[in-house]
Amino acid sequence: MDPRERTLVRKLDYYIMPTVCVMYFLNYIDRNAIAQARLNHFEHDLSMSGNQFNTAVSILFVGYVLMQVPSNMLITRVKPGIYMSGCMFLWAAVSACTASVKSYGGLVACRFFLGMTEAPFYSGATYILATYYTRNEMAARAGFMFCGQLLATGFTGLISAGIFAGMDGRCGLTGWQWLFIIEGALTAFVALLGFWLLPNSPGDTYWLNEEEREIIQARTKRDRVSDALYKTNAWGGLKQAFKDKRTWLFCFMHMFHGSACAFNTFFPTLITATLSIAITGFIVAASTLITAARYVACFIFPIGAISVNSVLVGWTSSTSSQTEEKRAIVLAITNVFAHIGNIYGAYLWPVTDEPRYGIGFGASAGFALLSICCAWVIRKLLIQENRKIRTSTLEHVNLYSY
Q1: Which has the closest alpha carbon to 80: 331, 398, 312, 255?
Q2: Closest CA to 114 of 184, 24, 45
Q3: CA 351 to CA 387: how far, in whole Å?
Q4: Are 149 and 302 in contact (CB under 8 A)?
Q5: For 244-289, what is each residue's pLDDT tens digit?
Q6: At what angle do helices 324-345 and 52-75 cross, to 10 degrees?
Q7: pLDDT digits (tens, 9 = 90+) for 306-326
Q8: Do 389 and 322 contact (CB within 8 A), yes or no?
Q9: Contact status, residue 5 vs residue 215, Cβ threshold 8 Å
Q10: Which of 36, 82, 230, 280 has the smallest CB count inside 10 Å?
Q11: Cα 19–20–24 angle (5° rounding)?
Q12: Stretch (H or E) spanning 95
């Protein structure tokens, strides 16, 4: 790599990666604050009963799924950094407003709008990463961003415990109300920083100089895979995404992977290797009730199932980069399918199936295997496409990545 390009990549890492990682951390913290609030007589205060809490949790994904594609259609027509930071400020406000709800209906409304305002983040963040990083750099950066969610999973309980212990009853507010207020305020503060730290287009980012902008444009042109050299609009990108059979294969691969990762709610070759590790863990967990063996299995299957996420995002992004609009929309559609897997995947772990949870572990192994099959089908299609490109006279067309 050219020394100037290496210096540029370090600068991009300095500005972009800590920002999106912290944003993802807070995205997950705010989304799951309701689960922690439940430990502080949240349901009792809102007079909730039966499945009302579960409905309040799930309704977020309705707004989340509805906004995914429209948001990424819009992000190619606005300044991405400002748009993402603005959406983050909105979800911070909605999250903080949850402290003021007095009824189940108010909670459902807040959760729905929280889903709508949080929806632009993940797909938008992967779009920004894909704009500035090459396909060889993308998976590592997506993995670093994903660490934000993993850290949130580990720290959300500690944060809430500290707030409940130190703030419960202060100023006439309960601990769960302070939880939403404090986490919402922190998110709003980071959103304000995002207006300065997140990049817009390479030509409209203040911390890039002219030479760096030219290098980014050259990197993008060199790295892009393309059917033809033409521009389109958001609706054209939507049409391109829907007509490409690879889009739907990637969707199913993400969905099966999301289904295999549903255990998180309760606790090509690289893709095949990592998901094969997950399958081993799932089978061990389902086949024995020996405590030690199950603990070992619970260390094994997250290694395979979760680590492959960044590879899927990078592969999807680079293969769908014929136009910026198409890439943005494909990233959104695949994320929708991934969350569909999480929705029905949660029902595979009923309390009636404890302590073995054979249905959940067995189904997760099957979903991981189906995701592997999708990966190999996509790989075969791309190999065939590359052969056609090599024999064509379209010298300006790059090879599809696989």
Answers
A1: 331
A2: 184
A3: 51
A4: no
A5: 888 888 778 877 777 666 555 444 433 444 445 455 555 555 555 5
A6: 170
A7: 666 777 777 777 777 677 778
A8: no
A9: yes
A10: 230
A11: 120
A12: helix 80-97
Contact 241, 329 (CB under 8 A): yes
DSSP assignment of 384-395, as one string? HHHHHHHHSS-T
Sign of CA dihedral 104, 107, 109, 112: negative
Residues 169, 45: contact at Cβ < 8 Å? no
For the stretch 201-228, pLDDT in tens is 888 889 999 999 999 988 877 776 654 4
Q: What is the pTM of this model?
A: 0.76
Closest alpha carbon to 34 in 62, 57, 64, 61: 57
Residue 18 tokens, joined: 């800590």
Please choose, from the candidates 313, 328, 326, the residue with its C-alpha nearest in 3D space to the C-alpha of residue 75. 328
**Contact, 258 vs 338, CB < 8 A?**
yes
**Distance of alpha carbon 210 from alpha carbon 202, whole angstroms:** 9
- Chain position carrying tokens 């287009």: 201
Residue type, 151: L
